[in-house]
Amino acid sequence: MAKLQPAVQKETKRTAIFTFAAVAVMILVFAIGHMIWPDSIPFDYRVILGGVCGGAVAVLNFFMMALMVQKAASMDDQDKVKLTVRSSYTQRLAMQIIWMIIAIAAPCFQFIAGILPLLFPSLGIKLRGILHLNME
What pLDDT band is residue 132 in, cutting at 50, 70 and 90? Predict the structure, then answer.
């Protein structure tokens, strides 16, 4: 594997910052919701653990995608590029599905708090584009 490109490092850092900031907001929303509707909205260690682990899976997924793009950009053979892209997508999708199953099945995670962070990297990228944020 070639050296990690600065763009991969930079974008992964941006994605991690946004993702974990969004996880913190999500945890705060759970806490406030629990104070207002304690019977309907849970709030305990399972929410925090689910959010942190879900955020980690989301950032890892983004990082793996960025590594694949870096690798594919250095290839000359288009058939190998297609194979690399498909293989990476399949592996990343499988990782997310396995995480979702764990988040739902394991009693130590609140499943919504565990699954919701998977959406945060995409949301952050879209918001940066809409708001034209550079985030240097």
Answer: confident
Where do the domains of the chain lie?
A: 7-130
For 40, list phi and psi in degrees, rounded to 5: -100, -35
Within a 13 Å sphere around the CA of 96, how many CA atoms are in the beta-carbon half?
A: 19
CA distance 78 to 36: 55
Which DSSP symbol is given to 41? S
pLDDT > 70? residue 1: no
Q: Could you tell me the two tokens for 45?
A: 């260690």
User: What 8-state DSSP symbol labels residue 3?
Assistant: P
| pLDDT per residue as tens digits for the range 53-107 | 999 999 999 999 999 999 998 899 999 999 999 999 999 999 999 999 999 999 9
H or E, element range at 106: none
- Is residue 23 a contact partner of residue 54, using CB atoms and an 8 Å limit? yes
d(CA 47, CA 85): 34
- How far does CA 72 lie from the centroid of its chain? 21
Average pLDDT, rounded, for the chain = 94
Contact predicate 30/43, CB 8 Å = yes
